[in-house]
């Protein structure tokens, strides 16, 4: 699962909230593109029946989460994030919401929605 369309720049806005809003925007742009949606829904529908595809998807997301960990490392260093915060869960909450909203509900998400989403997720983890 290597493609330029799947490449994300890890943001560094100077704040956890800013970085997560930028990540949410990148995810939304990826999922909103009709060509990407077709590929993503095809791959996702194959996951239960194709172990090799599921393994490739698992490697892809493990790599993504690993590269995005720096967002949380910087937030910890700035004192913005509780020690017990789970970065994988935070990204699952953001990404899962956007996948469900965009691919299942066929709804868009403007900047205001994305900011509200990030604020809602951070309410439980921000200091």
UniProtKB/TrEMBL annotation:
Alphabetical list of Pfam families matching this protein: TetR_C_11 (PF16859)
Domain (Tetracyclin repressor-like C-terminal) ranges: 10-121
Keyword tags: Transcription, Transcription regulation
InterPro entries, sorted: Tet_transcr_reg_TetR-rel_C_sf, TetR_C
Protein name: TetR/AcrR family transcriptional regulator C-terminal ligand-binding domain-containing protein
Organism annotation: Amycolatopsis echigonensis
